Amino acid sequence: MTRSFIAHSALGERLKFRSMTGQERISALFEHRVRLISDMPNIQPRSMLGEDMSIEVNLATELGGAGSRFLSGQVTRFAYIGKDDGDMCVYEATLRPWLWYATRRSDFRIFQFKTAPQILQEVLAPYGFAIDARLTGSYRTWDYCVQYSESDFSFASRLMEQEGIYYFFSHAQGSHQLVLCDGADSHTELPAGPVRVSYHAGVLAAQILEQDFIDSWSHSEDIASGNFAADDYDFRKPNAEIDTMRQQPAGHSRDSFEIYDWPGGYTELADGENYARLRLEQLAGRRELVSAEGNLRHMAPGYLFELARHPNAQENRRYLIEAVTYDFQENALRVIGAADAAYSESTSSTSYRQSFEVLPDSATYRPARVTPRPRTTGPQTAVVVGPAGEEIHTDQYGRIKVQFHWDRYGKRDENSSCWIRVSQTWAGSNYGAMHIPRIGQEVIVDFLNGDPDHPIVTGCVYNAAQMPPWELPRHKTQTGFQTHWSKGGGGKHMLRFEDSRGTEHIELSTDHGNTHLHMGYLMNQGSGVQRSYGFELRTNEWGSIRADKGLLLTTYTQDFAQKTSRDNPDGHEQMGATLAQSNALMQAAGQAVAATKSLVSAMAQGKNQTLSGLVQGVQSLGGVPQAVAALAAGGSPEAGVSDDPDPAMADAQQMLDLSRKIDKPVVSIVSPEGQTMISPRPIVVSSGQSVSMRSVSALTMTTGAQLTQLAAKGMLTQVSEGGQINVVSDGDIVSHASAGAINLVSKTDASITSTAANANLTGQKSVVIQAAEQDVFVTAKTSISLICGKSSIVLLADGTVKINGVKGLVNFTDNLDQRGGKIFLNCDAPIGGGDPEMEVATLEEDAHPAAVLAPAAAAEEAMDQPGVRSPTLDRQLAQIRREGWKLRFGPAKGGSSASERKKTITLDSSLKGRPLAFNAAAAHEVGHALDKREMDTSSRQAYINSGLRAEGSAQINEIRVQREILANGGPDILANENSHHMAIYNRAYDEALRTGNFERAEQTIGAVYGTNKASGTGGKTYYEMYGERYDDLPLTKLKKFFGIE
């Protein structure tokens, strides 16, 4: 007889099938318990574990049919049960799918930027079994998904349940395959046995022999929730509405109940709508269920079949098999015939039974969300990470990356986690606190709703590698913050509060510029020695105090119960008293100014009357017009001083008003005990209007060097009493009125005295000495001289009087007495007059008869010799002529040169009649003319180097012309040059042609050229010539004068 069930294992026929019970369901792990018999009493269970075992089910019946189906699985448990009545050894094998191994392994693992199918593949691939992925949907990319203390199976199941993915197993001999599905297209008809299965019940069922059929069919419907709503929150779109709601057609009037899910597990509305659809499909799939039984062998979950012959025609349709329970029995020895008749007769033959659950194929199957989501039990710590070489790694939201202590796969870099938000003590729209944890810090991480997929940093903690900023418990009374410079450290910023009684203070500081603000008890932070009390602000860098609406600096104690911080009563009172005294002094000064101006006016009137008389006298003498005009111009004008002795008083009064309460942008500095302003360097006091310096008592201005007083509109010095002394111990005194007069006025005697040298009184036009009421005395110990041009009167101490002149006039309206021992009169007067004019002849710079030639004259003709023409040189000459250059001959043996300033090439006239040397010299100087680079005057050596480089450039032009003439069949214009030097020049030129580096060639040639004697320099080398030229530069002389070089 043919066996209906055959066990295929590693032991072959030594293990025979006896019975199998088990269940297989979509999205569940099957488990089959298989009883086996064997004549082997010593099968080791361990040898069977992990092996594949297949149960072959023969689908043939007496009425026909053929083929087999297989139920395969991994042996996960194998046990010896005992012996049966026939003395056969009985064993039991538990068969489970390979996916069951995923329940044996759990992990903590992070997946980033992957879809659910990609995550499933990564989790299940290491098990080494094939997966048939029949997925047709599109799946969101998970930015961050965590397997958190879950078995691989639980994690995969949870993820599939959320994404609407389910699975079943397809079986073959020796293997089974995991099939992933997400829709009706993933299912096919039963692969073996009839697809159309009949229903027989009651008496008819008892008459059916050896045929697979269904004899029990229970169809039920449930009330299901017909509405699903979900919502979530995305901090990146805090005001976005991402709530979703879906409903399905009501199957019953009570199907309108709603399930609301929060958080929905999404941040994009499209994902939320997809999840809502999946949940409704899962709920709808449970509305209508069928439980059935029958004498069946081929029913398998995940496949489709069609029901036939049911008395209710509506039941005869296609169904998806969701779950199958197996009960197979067979006495293998009886079927095949056994030697032991007692065993054969005492046991029954073959039976099989299947119960199963199905749902109409019109419904979409979705797995129920039964796998619990892991929840964290509290906060944990992690280490902040980021890219190599960085100290701070964050994004626009201040988020960070961390390495969790449980993460075995993270590389402690920027890919170790998702971006994690950091809790701040205060956070608002462009305001709040910001403390970004830095790479290496240990942070406290909690999880929103206990979800490992949503970490949030709630704080930072110290550890042995990240110690507090100051020593504890020594400084346990200190509170504050201390930062660390990034990158590389090297400094810090700090805000620290010291609450220790007796040394209370606050410190705000930065190591940048050693800048500190200390308030309270001031102490040396290193030694702890007290320094003072109060506050100190210091820096090694620059400092600024700015207050747009006013600034009050005061050392007065303020009564804040009655006053505000801007009130300045003490400063206002003190300034008012000073201005009152100053005003009294200024009134006296005003009176003195008025009196002085009246006196100066009277003096000017009397002086002008005297000058009028003098003018008349000079005119009666027929005096020269210049003298008359000078006298007629009169004396000095009246004193041009303002009537207001204190123009700054109005501004001072305004500042007094503003200092009462600082509510304008002014600065007021007030101190009851005085102020000092001290600097070893310059101090500048500047005002756009007026400056007032007022003192109730003395005012002293001293300087160790020059004191300068400048006034654009007049200067007034008023001393009410006590006199005024101006003493210059060493040096001169100069009082200079550039556009006006100097008036020295004294009520009593006025003296101008030189105690050790001359006293000089000089007038550009006239000098008037007047005694308004009495005499003018001019006395001298040795002589008195009156000199005017060619006329003079000299009075000597011995009584000699000398009067000298060219011509003269003596005119008296009254008597003239001439008395003397002897009187001589000479009547021979000289004839003629005037000095001859000297004519000065000038000579043009280029007027030497042999110097200048027209462009087409001798200098041009000298080059125009047969066989020595160079097209390159011709083009160069044409070019410099267009630029305004001229050629000329200079003195013989004077050398040749090119002057950029004069645009002139001067050729040594000794080259006339020597066409080879002439063309060589011309090519050299034209090379200079074409070189537009400036000479480097930064140093003497730089100047020499740039000169020699220019010589090298000119020599290269010579070689270029030389080779062109030779190529055209002409003579060697450089045949008479130094052969050793020419060899060096040519090698450098050839190297430049090869590499294109002509600057190097110029330097090489120039270095050699500098040893040559320069023509017209008295035998000096080019090195020496350029050095002397540098020394003669005006810039060089200025440098030497100022000690720069």
UniProtKB/TrEMBL annotation:
Gene3D superfamilies assigned: 2.30.110.50, 4.10.220.110, Baseplate protein-like domains, Gp5 N-terminal domain
Question: Family per UniProt?
Answer: Belongs to the VgrG protein family.
State if Secreted is listed as a keyword.
yes
- The protein's organism comes out as Variovorax guangxiensis
Location in the cell reads: Secreted
In terms of Pfam families, this protein maps to: DUF2345, Phage_base_V, Phage_GPD, T6SS_Vgr
Q: Which InterPro entries match?
A: Gp5/Vgr_OB, T6SS_Rhs_Vgr_dom, T6SS_RhsGE_Vgr_subset, T6SS_Vgr_RhsGE, T6SS_VgrG/RHS, Vgr_OB-fold_dom_sf, VgrG2_DUF2345
Which segments carry the region annotation Disordered? 363-382
NCBIfam families attached to this UniProt entry: vgr_GE, VI_Rhs_Vgr
Task: Provide the Gp5/Type VI secretion system Vgr protein OB-fold domain boundaries.
Answer: 393-462
Is Transcription included in the keywords of this UniProt record? no
Signal peptide (residue range): none
Q: Where is the Putative type VI secretion system Rhs element associated Vgr domain?
A: 489-589
Q: Keyword set for this entry?
A: Secreted
Q: Which residues form the DUF2345 domain?
A: 662-795
Name this protein carries in UniProt: Type VI secretion system secreted protein VgrG
Q: Which GO terms describe its cellular component?
A: extracellular region
